[in-house]
Amino acid sequence: MWDTGSTGTLISDKVVKELNLSIYRTGTAQYVDGTSHPSNTYICCLLIDNHTQLLRIEASNFKERPECDVIIGMDVIRYGKFLIEDENFSFVIKSLI
Fold first, then answer.
1. 1 found inside a domain
2. In 3D, which of 23, 3, 8 has the Cα closest to residue 75?
3. 36-47: per-residue pLDDT in tens?
4. Do the Cβ atoms of 91 and 46 come closer than 8 Å?
5. Is residue 3 part of a domain?
């Protein structure tokens, strides 16, 4: 899921387990309702469909959206051009240089 209201990318416990990620940092995550919840942060690389450039990100885990494995936040969206036209969606990563 792409979430322009999220400052950071989030990953499910399922992704953490499948990728065998190690905890980088522990802390809390602030939710839209103003509450804070314990959260672990992981370092991982993200490759978006139809792109060749890996993005190294810090992603925190979440449990509240079982229908999603990854929620892409503004930490990733800021690297590109996010377009929705008619029923078509595209995301083009600009050069990271």
1. no
2. 8
3. 788 899 999 988
4. no
5. no
